[in-house]
Amino acid sequence: MFIREYNTKNKKTGKVYSAHKLVESFQTEKGPRQRIVMQLGTLTLPKSEWKKLACVLEAKLSGQSTLLPNEQIIEDIADKSIEQHKLVKTVRAKEQDCKQNQELLTIDINSLATIKHRSVGAEIVAHNAWNKLGLGSVLTECGFDSRQKALAEAVIVGRLIHPANDLATYRWFQNRSNLSELLSVDLTKTGKDAFYEIVDDIMAHKESIEKKLTNREGKLYQRGEDAIFLYDLTNTYFEGSCLNNSLVAYGKCKSKRTDCPLVTLALVVDTKGFPIFSEIYAGNQSEPETLTDVIKRIENDIYGMQISIIKPTLVMDRGIATADNIELMDKEGYPYIVIERSNVTKEYENEFKTAKTDFEIIDTSHKSAYGDINHVYIKKVEHTEKTCRVLCLSEGKERKETAIDDKKEQRFIEDVNRLKKSVAKGYVKSYDKVVERLGRLKERHSRVAKYYVLNVTKSETDGSIEILAGKKIKDDKLDKFVGCYVIESTHMNLTGKEIWKLYMTLTRIEGAFRAMKSELGFRPVFHQNAERTKGHLFISVLAYHLLNAIETDMGDAGDNRQWATLRDELSTHQRSTVVITEKNGSVHHIRLSGTPESEHKKIYDILGVKDPLKRIDKLAKIGL
Question: Residues 29-65: pLDDT tens digits?
Fold first, then answer.
């Protein structure tokens, strides 16, 4: 074999283009002939090296290795050329196969129609995540049969793609989604009761499912032995009276719904956001009291006998980190990172005064809504023999808290002025009544009122009443510690920056709660009994496993879009049935997925997803 150069000339511009090809000689009845073996494109290799390249290519094509060592540049060119040659052969083989298998019909073009349009994009991505996490295998290990596994996937994926109540999920599955074609069991004729009952089956194996799933995710996403677990609680509200629901209780609603009963979800996640396990409590559950349950679950379900040598770090917010809980973690030997529950910032007033000049600065490279960078200032200080503290001042937190305080102060001043007008116009004439109204106003605005002096005076001459209001402090800020917080940790060996970064991973559990509430139908709860309520919440947790796997894989590839955005992009990828009628009256139903658009392809490529659904041809009616 040898390499030949072919030149072609552009007739308009006169420019000459060169291309190189690998050529071989062969013997025929009419004598020796030559044929092109493969295209090499345009070579920049000197002509004196062409013979070496031809020998290397000939050896690689025949599956042999050259006896003499080759220069790296020749090896690289040869490998690239062989790879391109194989690709061209594959494409040509597919084209030839299509030509051989093509079926030509004479059809009535006016009969062309499409029916049974169903979404398929988000379903393919969710089904891929389901298989990657091995949820089907987890359910098999729990004793689920094929039909139960298919139902479980329908319910959990339904919560991920179309978050709603159980009846709405059933209708979505039957009428709008193509998920049924991805499942191993046909559920198209299954009634809605089966969708309710499978949730009960899942709840019966809750702890086992969580344990097996956590172990799989730990291996798949390489969770280290020195794990860091983030712990927090949230709650959601009910629609309805829920008189027979033992979980129902009134408490402080994080969704600001004071008129509805609540239920509480406790969640432990790792630093990548994958749930470790969850617990469901009554709506008035005290946050600090739940830590004992968390430690038991970690010891029994996650580490078992290894807990004596492996102690994960617990990261939690001030709502759980009471003095008793810190003492509990210390007693059990758990390292921790927490924000101080009590307002210890006052102990470091002098340090915080010079924070922006004396503390270490951390540039988070995160722009605020105002376009500026959020800087964080930190300083590590000793606390006890076993713990240290990190003093933190966040400019972003400072701006946020100042804006909240300004809004509260504005509302307070508006209410005071409104009361003044009522008194001035004579709507409120009684001195005692004015004092009472002012007292209620102070109670309503207790956060702001303590910074103001409010007095009521009554004139001895004409009996007129006047309200006097003045600010106690001259500083524009109501609280001189806005943006300040103190982190306490047992990690004495870590720097202040490292401790702060570990604490900031708590945003992962905040993101989990936010995703469940905004994207996974976590609220409100419509179920009127405790077991179905628990099932509703647990399905959202399982759906979040899928969501987090998808977002983690996308993020690892540099694409940080959230699931809601991906779901919206994928919603336009549909699967439909094309109906065509032949000239002889035969009617064909061809079921196929639409060609993915560029944005669909981008998502599929990142996640390594391929549409597993094949084209289905069905002769619906035979003609004459």
Answer: 888 888 888 888 888 888 888 888 888 888 888 877 6
Q: Give which of 551, 576, 536, 540 is closest to 240, Cα–Cα.
A: 536
Closest to 161 (Cα-Cα) out of 571, 444, 522? 571
CA distance 51 to 349: 80
Residues with Cβ within 8 Å of 189's Cβ and at least 6 positions away in sequence, in order, are none
pLDDT for residue 152: 95
Cβ neighbours for 251, distance < 8 A, ≥ 6 positions apart: 235, 262, 264, 283, 284, 285
Q: Tens of pLDDT along 57-100?
A: 888 888 776 655 667 888 888 888 888 888 888 877 776 776 66
Sequence spans of domains, the chain: 2-99, 109-115+573-621, 341-501
* Segment holding 536, helix H or strand E: helix 530-556
Do residues 557 and 609 lie in contact, with contact meaning Cβ atoms separated by under 8 Å? no
Closest CA to 351 of 387, 385, 384, 390: 390
Alpha-carbon gap, residue 393 to 376, rounded angstroms: 6
How high is the pLDDT of residue 254?
A: 60
CB 238 within 8 A of CB 259: no
For tokens 């072609």, the residue is 8
Residue from 116, 137, 118, 113 nearest 182 by CA: 118
How many Cα atoms occupy the beta-carbon half-sphere of 230 within 13 Å? 21
Describe the strand order of the beta sheet including 31-41 as a list of residue ranges: 2-9, 16-28, 31-41
Residues of the chain with pLDDT under 50: 369
Residue linked to tokens 């008194």: 423
Nearest to 532 by CA among 86, 136, 200: 200
